[in-house]
Write a structure and sequence with these properties.
By secondary structure, the protein is mostly helical. The protein has ten helices and three strands. It has two domains: about 5-155, no CATH class; about 160-275, no CATH class.
């Protein structure tokens, strides 16, 4: 296969290039799922890899923003919220277009190399690198836009937002789970069950690339407390992804134990044994 044919296939298959109609079909599916209150909705949003055409990626961000608004309105239960912008903030749309520009430039450079007779591997290398960047950036942009839409609704109706992390999230995101932000305010920076991180405040997830966290309007303080307890239990049980070093989980559990955390005796005993052993055997759960 020639380098130019390989580039064409890469652009079509690896980068997920598609036209607006195809993307809008996916959005319609998401809206139907949301109407059914399907628990898959957030997963679908996070796994959307928007097409590598500028206006399509901007459309992905706009659609995620609107889905975040709808999600928040369903939780609050007061119908349409007046005063919430129909489109996401300009900086999110700008970021979407910049991401598209990055991959377009990589494709252009690769095609020049191919036409000049460069080795196919040399021509494809920068595009593959850009593809990985694109996928991470698209996931981050779409997730951020959805959470920003939810936050916008909560701010207008003057309800705090609560941070929600997955059970096997990283030690930074778990430390945010159950934390709340007052209307119009940001979540604090530097929060972690492990070593201190970036101290800059953050308006909404994602906290890092590939972050799966979300926010919701806080309807019950007990819910926030429950999220905190679940996050602490996750740390003490060592639930995590393979991408996070075991030493990081052990360190987080050790710090939490030394803080005098309030948890069931069996959970504390398990965590103490894991820290002494230097390994959690429950890593892949749940």
């Amino acid at each position: 296969m020639s380098a130019e044919l390989a580039l064409a296939r890469l652009e079509r298959d690896v980068l997920g290039v598609a036209r607006v109609s195809r993307f809008l079909d996916a959005v319609d599916q998401l809206r139907r799922m949301l109407a059914l209150e399907s628990p898959e909705i957030r997963e679908k949003i996070l796994t959307l890899v928007a097409p590598a055409i500028g206006k399509d990626l901007a459309a992905a961000v706009a659609s995620a923003w609107n889905l975040g608004i709808i999600d928040a309105e369903k939780i609050i239960g007061e119908g349409k919220t007046p005063g919430v912008a129909a489109m996401p903030p300009k900086h999110l749309v700008t970021a979407a277009r910049q991401t598209q520009k990055t991959i377009a430039e990589a494709l252009s450079d690769a095609r020049k190399l191919a036409r000049a007779g460069a080795d196919p591997a040399a021509a494809l290398s920068p595009v593959l690198k850009a593809a990985n960047t694109l996928k991470a950036d698209v996931t981050t942009l779409v997730n951020h836009a959805g959470n920003a839409g939810t936050t916008a609704v909560a701010d207008v109706v003057e309800i705090p937002t609560v941070w929600i992390a997955e059970t096997n999230a990283c030690v930074v995101c778990l430390a945010y789970s159950g934390r709340t932000a007052k209307p119009g305010k940001q979540f604090p920076g530097g929060v972690s069950f492990g070593k201190r991180t970036d101290s800059a405040p953050i308006d909404a997830p994602p906290r890092h690339p590939h972050c799966r966290c979300t926010v919701e309007p806080l309807m019950s303080k007990d819910y926030a407390k429950a999220l905190r307890r679940e996050a602490e239990r996750s740390v003490l049980r060592g639930f995590s992804l393979e991408s996070e070093r075991m030493s990081v989980r052990i360190d987080a559990a050790d710090r939490l134990l030394r803080s005098g955390v309030d948890a069931p005796k069996s959970v504390i005993a398990y965590a103490n044994n894991a820290v002494k052993r230097g390994e959690f055997t429950t890593r892949g759960r749940p």
